Amino acid sequence: MKRIVAVVGGLLLGAGAVMADQKIAVEQDNLMRGQAKSMYDVIGKMVKGDIPYDQAAVDAAIADLEASVPKIPTVFATNPKEDVKNATYGSSPKIWKNKADFDSKVPPVSKAIADVKGKIKDLDGLKVAFKSINDRCTDCHEVYRVKLK
């Protein structure tokens, strides 16, 4: 009887750990997806001409990025050891092997956002801002993001 209780307890602990890992992975994925929505679904589509320039949408996207980017080191503090199911991209284990370098990639993104905030007044300004911010995002993505599919 003690063995059965121990086995069931072990299985429940293991299941709890897997669910916790998935919760952390989803939180990380949601943060990045939110930033991608602002960066690519709003700003990027305007830059490409897929949607018309909209100052209010630009300001909201920049404000969202400004608020969410500094959260990256905290949200990525724990290695979930698994990826979000059916995700296209995931986090490289390199993040937790070199956390200081990973964290050092965030301030340049925040600075790029701060440098353009309030200065974007038209499509040409948006194009410059997009490149500036995107280049800093790419500095991290090249090393710490992996394509899963």
Automatic annotation (TrEMBL):
Regions that span the bilayer: none
InterPro entries to which the protein is assigned, alphabetical: Cyt_c/b562, Cyt_c_II, Cyt_c_prime
SUPFAM superfamilies: Cytochromes
One Pfam family per UniProt: Cytochrom_C_2
Single GO term (MF): electron transfer activity
Coiled coil feature spans: none
GO CC, alphabetical: periplasmic space
Domain of life according to the entry: Bacteria
Positions with a binding annotation for heme c: 137, 140-141
Any Gene Ontology biological process: electron transport chain
Post-translational events: Binds 1 heme group per subunit.
Annotated PROSITE patterns: CYTCII
N-terminal signal peptide: 1-20
Keywords, alphabetical: Electron transport, Heme, Iron, Metal-binding, Signal, Transport
Gene3D superfamilies tied to this protein: Cytochrome c/b562
Protein's name according to its UniProt entry: Cytochrome c-555
UniProt organism field: Bradyrhizobium ivorense
Gene that encodes the chain: cycC
